User: What shape does this take?
Amino acid sequence: MQLLVLAYPQLEKIDYDWIQSFRTKYNERYFNLVLPHFTFVFPVEDVLQKDFVNHIEKTSKKFKEFYFVLRCAQIVKDSFSDYTDLFLVPEEGYRIFVKLHDAFYTGILEKQLRLDIPFIPHVEIANNKDPLRCKILADEINSKNLEIFGAINKLDVVSFSNDGVETIKEIIL
Assistant: This one.
């Protein structure tokens, strides 16, 4: 079992439905495992669940609800597989995502931080083994005036296994 911290964004229904429709068509790996989300802490295995939850609760007290706007689609080569991913990346609110992510990777999670992989706040909407396919999709999205407003008002500490994602604790910001 792996532990993560996710945020399921608060979105307008029309935007949520568009993201899910897109994910249905183009997200081969994760559509059936997890809802649209931002990841703040990536999979951790060697920390006790109780200690992990306590650290996330304590650290998140320094933050409050924040808003973001997604305006850009960006392709990124997955660091752990032969897939390329297509992300929706926040233009507004970006710095809060980074500050929250960085705050979590202190204390008991300090050694878990992967400095070889850049942190890009994102909602993954597609993935494919053909990078060109993702590039075409990104160009399509970026040729339009995409503007998805949202909020992050809670975090989910989750466990991940082959069966999927299960929330252990919700933390209100």
User: Anything to note?
Assistant: The radius of gyration is 16 Å. The first strand starts at residue 2 and ends at 7. The chain has four helices and nine strands. Helices lie at 13-26, 49-60, 94-104, 131-142.
